[in-house]
Amino acid sequence: MTLAILLNSALRMWLIGAAVWLVLRLLRARNPHVEVLAWRMTLLAGLLLPALLYWGLAPRFDTVELPAIVSGAVAGPASAPTRPAGTMPIGLLASIYLAVSLLLLARLLAGLIGTWRVSRTARPLETGDDVRVSAQVRSPATFGTTILLPSDARTWPAERLEPVLAHERAHVHSRDGYWSWLAQFHTAVFWFNPLAWWLQRRLEMLAETTSDDAVVAARHDPLAYAQLLLDFARHPNSRSVAMSVAESNISKRIERLLARTPPANALPRVVRWVAVVVLVPVVVLAASTTQADSPVPPAAAASATPAAASAPAARPPGVSVRMTSAADPDIFYPPLAKAEKVTGYAIVEVDLDALGQLVSARVLKVEPEDARYGFADAALEVARHSQFSNASQQVSSMRFKVKFALND
To answer: Are 90 and 388 in contact (CB under 8 A)?
Structure first.
């Protein structure tokens, strides 16, 4: 998956996040369960967008051509494409991205393995569900569906143990741990996007709020529970992938408990399923792209050499294509067409990112149109093996003609 697709997905994610935030504000949503559902769907959208863009599964809508963006290009000289002064090479950017992403993924994996080992060695507590105690746990936490408590929890009085279990069971019921892992994976992939970090933090904070509401809804004393939170905050767990009462937004949670804010109602299952159903068309629409629907005029006279290309329109400064030896149309000349001595051409339109990397390519016109000759597929291969430069540093589209001609 290219950096261009990840950058494209991050930009679309910003638009989705802004839309969700605006809707929540307009609806004056006060129920944290509603906000949890909205941001969870946003997280899923962020994970699905790169796949939809990479495999081209989203629809492409026809639009009026914008000359300032959609342009033609002339095959450049044999010299390598130039890079704007002051910009990093693509290889260096890719290496930096990959190094940070792998570091974050390694931290997530190490946390999963470490906490799993703690949960496997912890001793079960006879409570009717998967509750375990361990000397390696300093404050209550939830790992998936397993509740982890400090080793002295066996001697806790009921007024201390029951609210803690109510909180952690709410995490288990809402699958907060799994969503936290998913958010951390999303952050590792899109670490360069501030929205990814904010979304991870927001989901963790909301998970703690809804679990606190479960404690109050079970008729435990909010003031006594607030004191428990203070005690646990003094003994936080080491950084891991477990949901912990001592890790997230303690001050605001205590203020909410002291204000005796009524617990919010959980959403019915049907509402959650409706949100998932609505998510699909929203993500597909967010991943959709546009293409110009205006016909491409016949190209100017082209050279008779196999690698010839010509420009249907003026191009923006600094945007060009160079067909290298690896992109020689003769290499991709369809065997059937060559055997029957059939010549042809194709008009190809490509999308370039700001760094001059190819994002997508499509054939707008092919001659002859008979699919059995395969000139369209051959032209796409030429485009994929060509080199592009984009000194304008703007996302652009360009068109050029690939001519398949037989040498005498």
So the answer is: no
| Per-residue pLDDT tens digits for 341-386 | 889 999 988 888 777 788 888 999 999 888 888 899 988 888 888 8
- Asked whether the beta carbons of 75 and 309 are under 8 A apart, the reply is yes
SS3 320: strand
297-404: CATH class: alpha beta
The number of residues in the chain equals 408
In angstroms, the CA 212 to CA 254 distance is 10
Taking the mean position of all CA atoms in its chain, how far away is CA 178? 17
Q: Which amino acid is at 9?
A: S
Between the CA of residue 338 and those of 43, 115, 327, 335, 401, what are the distances in Å? Answer: 50, 63, 17, 5, 19
* Distance from C-alpha of 375 to C-alpha of 394, rounded to nearest angstrom: 30
Contact 88, 354 (CB under 8 A): no
Structure tokens that stand for 188 in this block: 């590792």
pTM beyond 0.85: no
**Is pLDDT of 30 > 90?**
no
Question: Exposed, middle or buried, 81 (CB in 10 Å: 0-12/13-18/19+)?
Answer: middle
The pLDDT assigned to 310 comes to 39
CA distance 343 to 406: 7
Residue 261 pLDDT more than 50? Answer: yes
How is residue 229 written in tokens? 């939170």
Task: List the one residue out of 407, 391, 399, 390 whose CA is nearest residue 328.
Answer: 407
The residue with greater pLDDT, 145 or 75, is 145
User: Domain-by-domain residue ranges, the chain?
Assistant: 3-66+99-286, 297-404
Position with higher pLDDT, 307 vs 145: 145
Which pLDDT score is estimated for 248? 59
Phi (first) and psi of residue 40, to 5 degrees: -65, -40
- Look up residue 299 and give its two tokens: 């190209």
Q: What is the DSSP string of 144-181?
A: TTEEEEEGGGGG--HHHHHHHHHHHHHHHHHTHHHHHH
Q: Distance between CA atoms of 395 and 352, rounded to whole angstroms?
A: 6
Helix H or strand E encompassing 226: helix 222-233
Q: How far apart are CA 200 and CA 231, in angstroms?
A: 25
